[in-house]
Amino acid sequence: MAAEQAQLAAILGPDSAPFETLISHLMSASNEQRSQAESIFNLIKQNDPNSLALKLANVLTSSSHQEARAMSTILLRKLLTRDDSFIWPKLTESTQSGIKTVLLTCIQREESKSIIKKLCDTVSELASSILPENQWPELLPFMFQCVTSDLPKLQESAFLIFALLAQYVGEMLVPYIKDLHSVFMQTLNHSPNPDVRIAGLSAVINFIQCLSSSNDRDRFQDLLPAMMKTLTEALNSGQEATAQEALELLIELAGTEPRFLRRQLVDVVGAMLQVAEAESLEEGTRHLAIEFVITLAEARERAPGMMRKLPQFISRLFAILMKMLLDIEDEPVWHSAEVEHEDAGETSNYSVGQECLDRLAIALGGSTIVPVASEQLPPYLAAPEWQKHHAALIALAQIAEGCTKVMIKNLEQVVNMVLSCFQDPHPRVRWAAINAIGQLSTDLGPDLQVQYHSRVLPALASAMDDFQNPRVQAHAASAVLNFSENCTPEILTPYLDGIVSKLLVLLQNGKQMVQEGALTALASVADSSQENFQKYYDAVMPYLKTILVNANDKSNRMLRAKAMECISLVGMAVGKDKFRDDAKQVMEVLMSLQGSQMETDDPTTSYMLQAWARLCKCLGQDFLPYMSVVMPPLLQSAQLKPDVTISSADSDNELDESDDDSMETITLGDKRIGIKTSVLEEKATACNMLCCYADELKEGFYPWIDQVAPTLVPLLKFYFHEEVRKAAVSAMPELLRSAKLAVEKGIAQGRNESYVKQLSDYIIPALIEALHKEPDTEICASMLDAINECVQISGLHLDEGQVRSIVEEIKQVITASSSRKRERAERAKAEDFDAEENELLREENEQEEEVFDQVGEILGTLIKTFKAAFLPFFDELSSYLMPMWGKDKTAEERRIAICIFDDVAEQCREAALKYYDTYLPFLLEACNDESPDVRQAAVYGLGVCAEYGGSVFKPLVGEALSRLNVVIRHPNALQPENVMAYDNAVSAVGKICQFHRDSIDSAQVVPAWLNCLPIKGDLIEAKVVHDQLCSMVERSDRELLGPDNQYLPKIVLVFAEVLCAGKDLATEQTASRMINLLRQLQQTLPPATLASTWSSLQPQQQIALQSILSS
User: Which of 56, 126, 307, 1002 could link 1039 by a cystine bridge, Cβ 3.0 to 4.6 Å?
Assistant: First the structure.
């Protein structure tokens, strides 16, 4: 202890050497030395922050070692950043003022540029904490003094600090807007020093972003030419490094404040395209200029439609990108078809061109891009050079995702372009043509498959015969995969003989790449053709098993993994009876693999998890014996911790990991978080598989619930990966259902209903809480769906508190959704908003409807479960639901609002009568809504109110009938889209006849109702209505039979049609009552009447009816 005290005393003593040694140890390459130094440093920070700060300041002013000064600046910045290690409040006043003075003095004295930059960072960090409290009054005067000094170094420093302060505490700078404007103008126009101009540009751009009022931003419009001048002058004087810095800053502006550029858009974009076209410039510079234009095109939320107003520029940009695709070499290794040479010969120009075409098409859409492509691609295809053919095909594949709708309209032209290149003499062009077909099968499916299978599949089949070019062969197999994924068995089956036999040949190829391609294609073809694959099973399975057993050294790992995938998909396609015997052998192999130690990057794990789950789907309950082998590793994968590395976003010793595909980085505040994607993918796969098992095995999954629930419930809030959250959400109702079934079937090891309640008390609140924080609309809809299913399963196990929290969350969801819609409506007011943007808005709003749909479903479930006890909650929600009836709302929202009221009226009966005054006027009006779905919900509601409304409904009977009459007599009432509304209207008229006979002219209404029968669209209502008809005949209802029984033939006709339709239009009980009635009528009716009635039936109905009656 004493020794440590002495060491600390020496470090903090008057001699500066020991402290400098400590600093150098903190930078040591030796882990041991470094961690020892860190613990001493932290000890001093705890015990004597004052001396520590002064010591660091002392190194800054007096040390001759540049590394020590740099390190001290970084350490000081960390201590003065407002987080856990913020020491400022612990310092004495004199130390505080000393530090402030030293920092500003060092900026003036320091010679090293990199240290000055770090000093500016430190000053800005400290200022962002203490400026707002007015604890550094000297700082802004010092900065304005630097800006006007003659020393470029000081000017640059001041701008660097301005730029950071604008980010951290911009509001502190707004009062100086006039002074800043003139300083910026002066610097950008007249400073001879490029570094000062760049720092000035950075300060301007950060300042523009911190201004919240558009008037303030407009004051800076006149700086734009000067900002662009920074770029052009740097380029003209050959300072490309400076130009690239300027471009990066302007790209930031384009992404965050695109509308700032709008008034001078033509000049700015024109200048950028000139840079992109200038072949004398470095590639890096040209790529940044392209990035700027693409960023503007992508700034949809902030400036919708702006770039589509410049078609001449889009055409120029497209031409630039096409030219970049020509930058490709014909590398010999590409032809060898070893996997790692996939992109041999592709340059950085080529990859930027490829990526940007994709982004441009997604940002601007097909109506803008397809005309440009149709103009520029044909000359490329007609040119002699193979590179041009290749470029045209790559471009087509890249733009397909963004241009789907427009390309589907011009499918013939697109397919001709691609297929003509299948015969190209150059193998790389043939590869690109196949690649395009693969991409188009995904982006333009299933239209492409339906219309052009007879041209595409034979072309792919012959490409599989290209034995001279194994890479082309393998790619043709992969394209078969893409094509069949979007394909029905009917389309695929006629081609199976040819395709399967070719794939079997490829399976035996010496090239692993070709074998892998064939395996994935076979798997997909089996998956798409289902039981039609049975006839190939005996030929295919032996090959697959051979690969599974023999491909076991490291170089073949992927091959073995793909064989697993293929076997399991083939098994699922042909079904358990055909697959059962081989399944046993395959499981043995998988079990032995499962037991072996695999390396962490071995693809087998993830493929195996999926194969097991498919085998389970195929074998059903026969799979249970294997669960004890499958589950432990699966749980382990589901519990993987994300492999996260956290570093500061600007730390100097940044290991550049951006080129590492397996890491994904996200920046949060000033932290950079790197996540290993392979871990996340394995975790997501495992969670999906757990969900599959629970879904497939039902109560058989019971033994695992206690382990799976605590694994998945916390993952409802796993924000690193959407797939993990989606899987966890889908699994919740499955777990609850499994527990409930196990208890009901008495296989829950003696546990009873209270176990189901306990599980539901764990799952439902967790789902509600996760929904509250969920950022993604689509996942919100899935969570609501899962809550709905859980409520259906646990029913009355829910207590009032849980119902309350669901209702509160529904209020939140409705509010959040409405405000998202409002924001979209705001976007529609932007000056360049156009049809394309409108289409995108429509798609976003449709996703919103999915959320409303689920809200309606949950409320329906709660009403059905709790009936009148739910009404106090319904009253609370009414202010949220009433607006959904509005004329300004979408048809879907109106439909949902009506359905909720229908549920209340039907489930709560007398208790719901108090709502009729409010809701019936809306319901009556909605009967004639232009949307058939709204009409259906409204007329159904009238039927419910007629049945349960008693005297409250009576005064409205007349109006209800006339509204229903309009629906029934509509000229297109029986068109497919209208038939459900028609059937429900007929049913509602029937209810009025049944419950309000005394309020109607029954001699007219009843026969009119009979005339509409039978109804055949809504099978639920059909059973109700036909049963009612039966009862009326049994009671010899006067108005139904008519004077002198004149309507009997019609009744017999209806019975005949209902009986001939099998089980669809009547329950078995109703059908047997109808048969009895018909037999009675045979006895009692005069023969002539009977004969004429029979003759009105169709011949096959007569025969069917005779056999029904005589049996």
Answer: 1002
Residue 809 has pLDDT above 90, yes or no: yes
Nearest-angstrom CA–CA distance, 886 and 893:
9
pLDDT score recorded for residue 657: 42
b/e per residue, 102-139, with b = 16+ CB within 10 A? bbbebbeebeeeebbbbbbbbbbbbbbbbbeeeebeeb
Please check whether residue 262 lies inside any domain of the structure. yes
| Cα distance between residue 570 and residue 523, in whole Å | 6
Question: Encoding tokens for residue 994?
Answer: 């049944």
Q: Please tell me the number of Cα atoms within 13 Å of 124 on its side-chain side.
A: 23
Q: What is the rounded distance in angstroms from the CA atom of residue 885 to the CA atom of residue 908? A: 21
Interacting residues of 441 by C-beta distance below 8 A, sequence separation 6+: 448, 449, 456, 479, 482, 483, 485, 486
Alpha helices in 421-446 (DSSP H): 427-443
Measure the CA–CA gap between 65 and 20, rounded to whole angstroms.
9
Side chain identity at residue 859, one-letter code: L
- Considering the domain architecture, whether residues 975 and 863 belong to the same structural domain is answered as yes
Q: Would the CA dihedral through 268, 272, 277, 282 be positive or negative?
A: positive
Is 589 among the domain residues? no
47 CB-side CA count, 13 A: 10
Sort 302 into a burial class: Cβ within 10 Å, 0-12 / 13-18 / 19+: middle
Residue 134 sits at φ, ψ, to 5 deg, of 60, 40
Last residue of a domain, one of 995, 1012, 1029: 1012
- pTM here is 0.77
> What is the domain range of residue 953?
811-1012
- The tokens describing 196, both together, are 């000062």
Burial class (CB in 10 A: 0-12, 13-18, 19+), 864: middle
Q: What is the mean pLDDT of residues 30-34?
A: 88
Whole-angstrom distance, CA of residue 979 vs CA of residue 958: 23
Residue whose structure tokens are 């499958």: 630
* CA–CA–CA angle 303, 309, 312 (5° rounding): 135
Report the candidate in 497, 594, 587, 508 with the shortest Cα–Cα distance to residue 544.
508
Residues 6+ away with beta carbon under 8 Å from 598: 604, 605
* CATH number, domain containing residue 942: 1.25.10.10
Q: What share of the chain is helix, strand, coil (3-state, %, to 5)?
A: 80, 0, 20
In order of 119, 529, 901, 938, 979, the CA distances from 930 in angstroms are: 68, 41, 20, 12, 14
- Give, in order, the Cα–Cα distances in Å from 645 to each of 34, 59, 161, 438: 19, 31, 29, 37
The stretch 331-353 carries a mean pLDDT of 82
**Range with the largest mean pLDDT of 20-34, 799-813, 1080-1094:** 799-813
Residue 670 predicted with pLDDT over 80: no
pLDDT digits (tens, 9 = 90+) for 947-989: 999 999 999 999 999 999 999 999 999 999 999 999 999 999 9
Residue at 581 is within a domain: no
Q: Tens digits of per-residue pLDDT, 840-861?
A: 788 888 888 888 899 999 999 9
Question: Does 1086 sit behind a cis peptide bond, omega within 30 degrees of 0 on the bond before it?
Answer: no
